Amino acid sequence: MVKDTSRIVFCGFDCHECLVYKATIKGDLEYKEEVRKKYSSDNYSLNIEDINCTGCYKDSELLFKFCTDCAIRICGLSKGINNCGECDIYPCSKLDKAFEIDKNNKINLDYCKLNKN
Questions:
Q1: How far apart (Å, rounded) are the C-alpha atoms in residues 87 and 28?
Q2: DSSP state, 65?
Q3: CA-to-CA distance for 48 and 43, rounded, in angstroms?
């Protein structure tokens, strides 16, 4: 089966699975409020305006607050790649935490690496 890699971002996260991305595409304020509550914490409060993202690509007009200063994203942008699976030195230590957070990130990037062209 061929996997759609068009929305696999630098760290391996699949935007199609992201609640913030889904809320942005849907444009539903009630759904955005649900997502805001889910991702907010005592240490990190989000506003409904923060629930906007079209992916962390170079041409994205909207970027989720948590991704703005992401070292993985900054590195990928500087190399002109779509995701880290396209990088000549993949995998690198910058991805350790992303892989720890979600094992699917590594699976996605491994797939991208194998199918790179």
A1: 36
A2: G
A3: 16
Residues 6 or more apart whose CB falls under 8 angstroms from that of 2 comprise none
Record the pTM. 0.84
Cα of 78 vs its chain's centroid, Å: 16
40-54 confidence digits (pLDDT tens): 988 888 999 999 999
pLDDT tens digits, one per residue of 68-110: 889 999 999 999 999 999 999 999 999 999 999 999 999 999 9
Q: Which residues pair with 14 in a beta bridge?
A: 8
Q: How far is CA 55 from CA 8, 22, 90, 91, 100, in A?
A: 9, 10, 21, 21, 21
Tokens linked to 37: 């509550």
Q: Using an 8 Å Cβ cutoff, are 24 and 52 in contact? A: yes
The DSSP result for 83-94, as a single string, is: SGGGSTT-S-GG
CA dihedral of residues 77, 11, 115, 110 (deg, nearest 10): 140
